[in-house]
Design goal:
With about 650 residues, this protein is an alpha/beta fold. It is about 50% helix and about 10% strand. It folds into 4 domains: about 55 residues, no CATH class; about 150 residues, Substrate Binding Domain Of Dnak, Chain:A, Domain 2, CATH 1.20.1270; about 150 residues, Rossmann fold (3-Layer(aba) Sandwich); about 240 residues, Rossmann fold (3-Layer(aba) Sandwich), CATH 3.40.50. The structure holds iron/sulfur cluster and Broken Fe4S4 cluster (MSK).
Amino acid sequence: MKKPEERSSDNASIRMLNHVLECDLSTLWDRHEGMEPQCGFGSLGICCRICMMGPCRVDPFGDGPSEGICGATHDIIAARNLVRMIAAGAAAHSDHGRDVAHTLMMAAEDESCDYQVKDEKKLGALAAELGVETEGRSYREIAKDVAEIAFSQFGQQHGELVFTRRAPDDQVKRWRAAGVVPRGVDREIVEIMHRTTMGVDNDHENIMRQGVRAALGDGWGGSMIATDLSDVLFNAPVWLRSRANLGILKSDQVNIIVHGHEPNLSEMIVAASQDRELVELAREKGASGITLGGICCTANEILMRHGIPVAGNFLQQELALATGVVDAMVVDVQCVFPSLGKLAKCFHTEIISTSPKAKFPFATHVEFTEEKAFQTAKEIVRRAIDKFPQRDAASICVPDETTPLVAGFTAENIFQMLGGHYRRSYRPLNDAIMTGRLRGAAAVVGCNNPKHLHDYGHVAMTKELIANDVLVVTTGCTAVADAKAGLLRPEAAEEYAGAGLREICRAVGAPPVLHLGSCVDISRILVVLSNMVAEGGLGESIADLPVAGAAPEWMSEKAISIGFYVVASGVYTVLGTPLPVQGAPGLREFLTGGIEKLYGGKFAFEADPIKAAHMMIDHIDAKRAALGLGGPMYEVPYASKTSEQVVEAAG
Ligand code: SF4
Ligand code: MSK
């Protein structure tokens, strides 16, 4: 069995892993080790169970069968499996977007609804972009039209998703040439399921074309709708300070953790946890107050808009329960372990499921409906308060670890931060890249995965990038890992950044790693990239920009969908765990090579985060050279081959 330090690089998690060992509790790390060796056919992507003539497994070494019973080859089998994963990931993000659109519609139609439009400025900007008439109309009428347009994007059968207009013309031309501009979010997902059923699409590149189309429907459709309409309803984020890690839980307070993804629920829990009557009730039960913390992306949603502290990321969900001070863990959808209910039985903690789409063993189900949102949120908080006196003092272990952070960046406010008060545009960012003060930018995003040392990949890669004057933007569980490691503090620029990035951070007071929100907020990164192209001087398309992406510890089907829409938007993307295509040479070759000709981006696979960071920097330097830009302004620790050539060429 691996030691705690071999499972996590995060001090609070190591402390908790020691504690769960002492208490003889099992976590996902134990289950992961018990599962080894994992199925090679599944890992390589060459097991097919699409029809019941099978399941079929084709041999990766050429000794056994080279075709399934129907004649499907390695490439066909792996491509079908992979696009079905894209379909699931895109569906998850997009269903989230649909729920937010539903909430906006309710807020528009019902004055007494618990949800109301909070950001009229963002609503106005969105209305103008979508061609919604605003003159002489109430914000409710405008919001209703915006919500209608958002709804239409899911079921649309023809045409192009409206937010694809945000992409640079050159990128859209590539999509049109490849026939992958998404028509409707749902349509592209359904077509994947049709094309991959037995005996339909049997050309791996053609199968992947539909995968790209559905993924673009996620990034430039469902996820973008989720982000923009959440901003309208709950306010666009602003920069704020908060803290991260399990030490935010307080032994003398009622502790509630919200875990999952959709802000419809978490926003109401935030309001209910601050309700005066409920805080008073908590005091009557002997607590000094109510602490709310988040796990996974719902943590990022309430951090970005309210500064609510983050309890942890994906692999910390069981460790949070093991502290013995979580009175209720409230979950909705996505990334929630089915193991939580069983583990919670060892403590006084109540696991409360809330979505009709997601029920869990040993959880109490309190169905959350937008129609009775605040009332239900109060009921949930009350349940947590009732649990407080039942804690077992002997089983309490709260690691004394929290780290300060700055979060709350968006495509709209990032340039204000980087441009300062007097240059509110993307010009300073582009200028910094053109002069070499910034070498480029990178998005480091994604989950945790027990196949990797918890958080190490995120943090090591991010430190290597910023040391080399690459500005990092982050979302999801990477953002939480970086927060815990102190990389979201402005002071981190002094401690870890190269001289060029440090100068910029000093001038504007920004951290060297900018937290842009949850996984659906990767759509904000697409808008940032489009704005950089529109600002001028860095090429005609996203594919020309000196930028790269990475997901060092990804695990989710959603991450596959994200990877595909990012690559198809022109970004070179390095994954810490390979896509399940290693047993399919033609498909692997296409995704790491040929796909670039179509869209400008491609995948690479590298488990070592430092090597992966260097691959990203090599790519960034190659893009700089292609734009005719010089090398980095200051000496940097990693000089890529390209940067040496650039320096030589510059004399
Ligand atoms: Fe086997 Fe073909 Fe059926 Fe897949 S679709 S299970 S490869 S027979
Ligand atoms: S929560 S999808 S583990 S980033 Fe978005 Fe974290 Fe990955 Fe879930």
